[in-house]
Amino acid sequence: MKAVYKGANGQAVYALEVGGEQFNITQLVAGVDYTCAVTTEGAVKCWGVNTKGQLGDGSTLSSKTPVSVVGLTSQVTALALGRTHACAIQAGALKCWGGNGAGQLGDGSTVDRLTPTQVTGLTANVGLIATGDEHTCASLTSGPLMCWGLNSNGQLGDGSNSQRSVPVAVTGLNGNVTSLSAGTGGTCAVIAGSAKCWGLNANGVLGNGLTTNENKPVQVYGLTSGVTQISQGDIHACAIVSGGVRCWGHMNYGRLGNGGATTSSSYSAYPVQVSGLSGVTNLSAGGSFTCVTTTTGAVRCWGFNQFGTLGDGTTTHRSTPVATSGFTAGASSLRAGRSHVCALVSGQAKCWGSNSSGQFGVATPTGSLVPYDLPVGQ
C-alpha cells in the first residue's frame, strides 16, 4: 500500500490491494481479530472474524478478503471497532452493527445485526465514538456524552448499573470531549485537558487511587490539565500528558512501561511515567500492550508481546518502550487491536502481530513479529 495523492481535506490517501481488490483508503482500524478501512469515497470495507456479523456484510461468514459493509457506501468520517461490534459516523449520524447481546448497538434491542442499524436518537452531530467489549459511547458536537450497552461495572457512567439498549447521558460531564476511549469494562474521556474515567476498577484501572468500581466519572489522579489523549486496554490505561505518557492499572507483562518486572502481579492505581518518551502525538492501547507515535513519526510499543504486537522482531514482553522495526519517521495513524496493530506510515500500510483470522487481509502469514506491508496497489 502506498500514498498516491492527497485527499481534498489534506489527508494522505493509500492505494490498498487486498484479496485482489484495489481501493483507496484514508483510515485503517484494528479490532479484535478483524480489521476495517474507510475508503476515499467514505465507504467501509472489513475483513477477518465475523461470528456476530461484525464485518457488516449481512452474513456471519468470516473473510480473509475485504467485504463491503452494507449501506455504508459514502460519507463515513470515523470508525470504531469493539470485540464483536463496530460503529461508524455517517454524515453525522451513528450506525452500529454486529454483536448486540447487551444492547451495545443502541437500537433499543438485544438482537445481533448483520448490517448497520441506526443508534436511537443519534441522527446528527456525533463527534467522537468509542467501542468497548460490550458497550459504546459517543460525544455530540453540541450536547452530552452518551453511552449504552453492558453496565454491570458502571461503564455507562449514568449513576446506575442497569444495562441500556439506547443511549443515556453520562453524569456530570460538562464541556467538549476531546478524547474518548472504551475498554473491557470501563470508559475514559478527556475534557478541557483533564482525564476522567468510570466503570470497572479492578487493578486500579480508573487511576483514582482506589479499586472500587465507579458508575459515575471520577478524576484520574493528578491528570487535571495537559492531557491530550487517553486510551484504555483490558486492565490498564494510558494518557498523553504534555508530550509524555502516563499509565496505570495492572503491571504484568510490563504494560505500564515504567521498567517494572514483566512477571509482576502488582498494580498501580495511580498514573506512573512511561520511561523515555517525549513528543508523543498518538496513543493506542491494545489488550495488554500500548503503542505510540512521536513527532518524528517513529513508533514505539511496550507490554505483552506473545503475538509480536510490539513489532520488534521478538516475542519478549517489554516493560519499557521499544522501537517497532522499520519505523523511523512518517507514521500518520496507529490503531491497536486485541492481538494485532495497524498503521499508515510513510506511504505504506502495515500490520503486525497475529493474523490467525486473516486480519491482515491475507491468508498467510499467520502473523508477523515485524510490520507486514499490506499488498501495494499498482
- In the sheet with the most strands, the strands line up as 1-2-3-4-5-6
CATH class identity: Mainly Beta
* SS elements, strand count: 30
What is the CATH architecture descriptor? 7 Propeller
CATH topology: Methylamine Dehydrogenase, Chain H
Question: What is the global morphology?
Answer: globular
What would your notes on this structure say?
It is a single chain. With 378 residues, the chain is mostly beta strands. The chain has a single domain (2-373), classed as Regulator of chromosome condensation 1/beta-lactamase-inhibitor protein II (Methylamine Dehydrogenase, Chain H), CATH 2.130.10.30. It is built from no helices and 30 strands. It has strands at residues 2-6, 12-18, 21-30, 34-39, 44-48, 63-68, 76-81, 85-90, 93-98, 113-118, 126-131, 135-140, 145-149, 164-169, 177-182, 186-191, 194-199, 214-219, 227-232, 236-241, 244-250, 267-273, 280-285, 289-294, 299-303, 318-323, 331-336, 340-345, 348-354, 367-373. The strands form 7 sheets. Strands 1-2-3-4-5-6 form a 6-stranded antiparallel sheet, with no helix packed on it. The chain is globular, with a radius of gyration of 19 Å.
